[in-house]
Design brief:
Layout: H1 2-10, E1 14-20, H2 27-50, E2 57-63, H3 66-73, E3 80-83, H4 84-90, H5 95-105, E4 110-113, E5 126-131, H6 137-151, E6 155-159, H7 161-165, H8 173-186, E7 192-194, H9 201-210, E8 215-220, H10 227-232, H11 234-243, E9 246-249
Parallel strand pairs: 1-2, 3-4, 5-6, 5-8, 6-7, 8-9
Antiparallel strand pairs: 4-9
Helix pairs in contact: 3-5, 9-11
Protein name: Universal stress protein
Domain UspA: 2-114
Pfam family, one: Usp
Length: 256
């Protein structure tokens, strides 16, 4: 139900998308696929309606490869929301490649929600912005601040260790603090800080978990190689599942 809360907060309809990737030309098989899709959609609609939450629901069933369907849907969406378990089932475990393919081509931000996020969105916890010295850093920061204001959450900015070591690619901490000062002056309620040097993103997520510090979102860019590759690798997925936090991938149009 993570997407339900998002739709309500953003004051937009929630559209359910079911993509049928047909493997047979037999009419009976196609009819079975369509019936199964309809049943699945109706089940989800009933579950959402049973919550009594004031969200406008829409549904669409398409005959298309899932990645293509999702990218096309992102053209008119405010946010593309997918479950990590769904990606695993749809791609025989190849979560990383499929999620990265959608993220790299999506026309809107994309949220990858782990099953451990539970039945509702986390309404407490920080926003973790991950920068790596790429051209998308500004987008990650702007998007993180926007999400923090929407959720009344603090922002912590994590610099990937390799970014600070590559001449010409890193965003110096002094520059970041200068930008933070600008935001704090114009947004006095915003709590934004740079994370002290730490040995790796996954280690930092584990550190937060041990310290019982919840994380709502980890905001990254879709550039490869980059933080998204780290988070979609098996060890990264395990860390996200343990923390129960969602990965939000910025859309490419912000920085192209």
């Amino acid at each position: 139900m993570w997407a339900v809360d998002e739709a309500i907060d953003r004051d937009v309809p929630l559209q359910l998308l079911y993509a049928i990737e047909s493997v047979s030309n037999d009419p009976d098989d196609k009819a079975t696929e369509a019936a199964s899709a309809e049943n699945a959609v109706q089940e989800v609609l009933a579950r959402v309606e049973s919550t009594g939450k004031p969200v406008k629901l829409e549904a669409d069933i398409v005959h298309r490869y899932p990645v293509t369907a999702l990218v096309e849907a992102s053209r008119s969406a405010a946010l593309l929301c997918v479950g990590s378990a769904g990606f695993v089932h749809a791609t025989q475990g190849r979560l990383g490649s499929t999620a990265a393919a959608v993220a790299a081509s999506a026309h809107c931000p994309m949220a990858i929600v782990p099953a451990t996020a539970g039945l509702k969105r986390h309404d407490a916890g920080l926003i973790l912005a991950v920068v790596d010295g790429s051209p998308a850093d500004n987008t990650v920061l702007e998007h993180s601040v926007a999400e923090a204001r929407l959720r009344a959450a603090p922002v912590r900015v994590f610099r990937m260790p390799h970014a600070a070591a590559v001449p010409g690619r890193s965003r110096d901490g002094v520059q970041l603090e200068h930008r933070f000062t600008h935001w704090r002056r114009n947004l006095p309620d915003l709590d934004i800080q740079l994370v002290p040097e730490h040995d790796g993103l996954l280690n930092y997520l584990e550190h937060l978990q041990r310290a019982a510090t919840p994380v709502q979102l980890v905001v990254v860019d879709p550039l490869r190689p980059g933080p998204l590759d780290v988070l979609l690798a098996p060890s990264g997925r395990a860390a996200l599942d343990a923390a129960g936090c969602t990965v939000m991938v910025c859309d490419r149009k912000w920085w192209l």
